[in-house]
Amino acid sequence: MMRLKWISSLFVLVGIWGCSSPKTLNLVEYVNPNIGTIHSRWFFYTPAAEPFGLAKLGASTNGTYGNNQGWEAVGYEDGHTSIDGFPCLHEFQIGGISLMPVTGEVKTNPGKLEDPDNGFRSRFDKKDEIARPGYYAVFLKDYQVKAELTATARVGFQRYTFPDSENAHILFNIGNRQGESGAVRDAYIKLVNENTVEGYVITEPEYVKKYQSGATVAMYFYAKLDRTPESVEVFYQDSTLVSGNEIKGPGAIMCLNYKTKQDDVVTIKIGLSYTSIENAKSNLEAEAEKLTFDEVVQATTEKWNETLNRILVSGGTEDSKIKFYTGLYHALLGRGLANDVNGAYPKNDGTIGQIPLNKDGKPEHNHYNTDAVWGAYWNLTPLWALAYPEYYNDFVNSQLLVYKDAGWLGDGIATSKYVSGVGTNMVSIALAGAYNSGIRNFDVETGYQAALKNELGWEGRIEGAGKTDVKQFVERGYVPYENSIFYGTHSEGSSFSASHTLEYSFSAYAVAQWAKALGHTKDYKRLMSLSNGWEKLFDDSLKMIRPRVPQGEFIDNFNPLESWRGFQEGNAMQYTFFVPQNPSRLIEKVGKELFNNRLDSIFTEARKSIFGGGKVVNAFSGLQSPYNHGNQPSLHISWLFNFSGKPFLTQKWTRLICDEFYGTSGEHGYGYGQDEDQGQLGAWYVMAAMGLFDVQGGSCERPTFQMGSPLFDKIEIKLNPMNAVGKTFVIETVNNTPDAYYIQSATLNGKPLEQCWMYRDELYQGGILKLIMGNQPNEQWGAEKPPRCSE
């Protein structure tokens, strides 16, 4: 009987998802959140969420294990067979407010995957699981409970359908580690009245400990039950249940007890906030007080469809559409809201700040959490600039809030606390890229000064601002290899010295271009000089980047494929190509023929290991590969042939990476268990599948898009009046079969196009780019005039 009701409920939900208006395609059907969940990060799997939402709900299979170093894969894995709870918050270094429905005797710890009977976790079957943008459902076999999740922007909904039971329970697991949350410092849960539970949890994430020692992350909730419990008990994990309606301290869990008949339903609305219980309540009342669970599923699904419909693709394979819209989903899921409906937000110092309100009483902009911006300029920010500029603008304003509050930009922030992640800081490129893309609804001069300080400032620089070795770069023009601090960065140098030199050269260029646009000529000249710092590490005998020690000599026993010695999450073979600000100079120094032969052979070799780590399930499995698509330092390299006279090789290799590195299974999604990093690898696929990329990441004063090999017959991008004049930009292909990688000829708005690039502002005018494709390269098309890089 339960199984029949379970099946019938699926048909109801299919009906809900089919309610999109005729003008809005039902694109959520192409999104599979379970792709790539084998060895995925805590923030990766949150199906029940809005785009860029604060409330991000999903099942946890091992989130209660915690996270020793703050980055390891934990949370949900496609191959796991039991669930330990349904947390409401999933962000980089943030996790908590987990609920779990159970029946029978209450066990006082979550248990382990290999022994679920010794904990309150429950087994489940994949056939009984549904995961789509905005909705998640699963049948908990051990308890015969159906659990469903959905969310508004700041309110999580959990709905449980119970069996006939004298002992049905809902656990509020608030006081224990969840994913990347770090150790719990304090927690509180209280049954305020017969149908209201409120509380908080305060955690100390590992990256907060490293980059802002002494700071904490606080999460608050205000939950409304649609059914009053028969009784209430409380307990600390691994302790005894006692009667009570309040509990405080690490380990705190509350147990709501019910007597249920078959198919009795309990629904919980959970208002969430990073500032206070009162604001969590306000968030619930403003967004969801009168909404039912099904109404929220429909509304959130419609929001996802509207957001996904900004880029429409047709033709291509079914797998390519699934990869495309799942990648777009991840690009729009990560880096979620941190402020309340009333504009309150968590400040860096632990107090509550206030975003100014507009005439409608809403915040002038939103505030967001974010993993590091490292590499995001090659995927996320160009995609945001293209179709989601209003979010990009808010993201910039969000970063500037932290700068105004604490004095430095933060490459990664968790409730405004510094969580740099990689010890560098590339936010300057994101800020300059927004301005250069016509996204300017922020305090431009403050933004510029923040970026300038990020590039040149070292006095009083705090650990959380990253780049603690920037003094060396500014004074020497490069960062020396100095490994007295294991895997560390400090005022005298870094064990990642070469990669930092290359990155700081690039970000100096980005701010130089912004300085030029704003008329800051002195800054422009100084920063452009610094942007050439990479040349100081170029070994002319090897035609490669090679770290130098403080005395000036190149490091000895040099192995171009060795990672972590001068190079962060990469090696010299990969990082030698990290000169996005001046590819023509790099090509000149290497020699064009050697450059092309070396680069082509690198991809030929890397293809044997699926362009990275092969089938080894590990975030760092490709670090010693000549090319590693599973990590940020390599993501622009396949596009460099556009600058070296062989754009047909960019067309070939980017198409093959899309087809072979990316997959549609739990294990083979983004490589094999490699790190998708809050939408970065998904966004790369989206851009490459459209045949658009920007090696400079928007840093040029007049940015360009370089062309690759689109996977679809037609791509329609809906432009935004915030930064565009036209309404749509359309890419059409002819003869585009799976093996027809190569552009034979092109027209832009009916006129022949002989170059493999266009200016971004040309795209923002709207129009049609038409590409004739073939299975043999046209070695002449686009070869004569490389993409322009502003000087």
TrEMBL record:
<dbReference type="GO" id="GO:0005975">
    <property type="term" value="P:carbohydrate metabolic process"/>
</dbReference>
<keyword id="KW-0106">Calcium</keyword>
<dbReference type="GO" id="GO:0006516">
    <property type="term" value="P:glycoprotein catabolic process"/>
</dbReference>
<dbReference type="InterPro" id="IPR041371">
    <property type="entry name" value="GH92_N"/>
</dbReference>
<dbReference type="Pfam" id="PF07971">
    <property type="entry name" value="Glyco_hydro_92"/>
</dbReference>
<feature type="domain" description="Glycosyl hydrolase family 92">
    <location>
        <begin position="279"/>
        <end position="774"/>
    </location>
</feature>
<dbReference type="GO" id="GO:0000224">
    <property type="term" value="F:peptide-N4-(N-acetyl-beta-glucosaminyl)asparagine amidase activity"/>
</dbReference>
<dbReference type="InterPro" id="IPR008928">
    <property type="entry name" value="6-hairpin_glycosidase_sf"/>
</dbReference>
<feature type="domain" description="Glycosyl hydrolase family 92 N-terminal">
    <location>
        <begin position="30"/>
        <end position="273"/>
    </location>
</feature>
<dbReference type="InterPro" id="IPR014718">
    <property type="entry name" value="GH-type_carb-bd"/>
</dbReference>
<comment type="subunit">
    <text>Monomer.</text>
</comment>
<dbReference type="GO" id="GO:0005829">
    <property type="term" value="C:cytosol"/>
</dbReference>
<dbReference type="Pfam" id="PF17678">
    <property type="entry name" value="Glyco_hydro_92N"/>
</dbReference>
<dbReference type="InterPro" id="IPR005887">
    <property type="entry name" value="GH92_a_mannosidase_put"/>
</dbReference>
<dbReference type="GO" id="GO:0030246">
    <property type="term" value="F:carbohydrate binding"/>
</dbReference>
<protein>
    <submittedName>
        <fullName>Alpha-1,2-mannosidase, putative</fullName>
    </submittedName>
</protein>
<dbReference type="InterPro" id="IPR050883">
    <property type="entry name" value="PNGase"/>
</dbReference>
<dbReference type="InterPro" id="IPR012939">
    <property type="entry name" value="Glyco_hydro_92"/>
</dbReference>
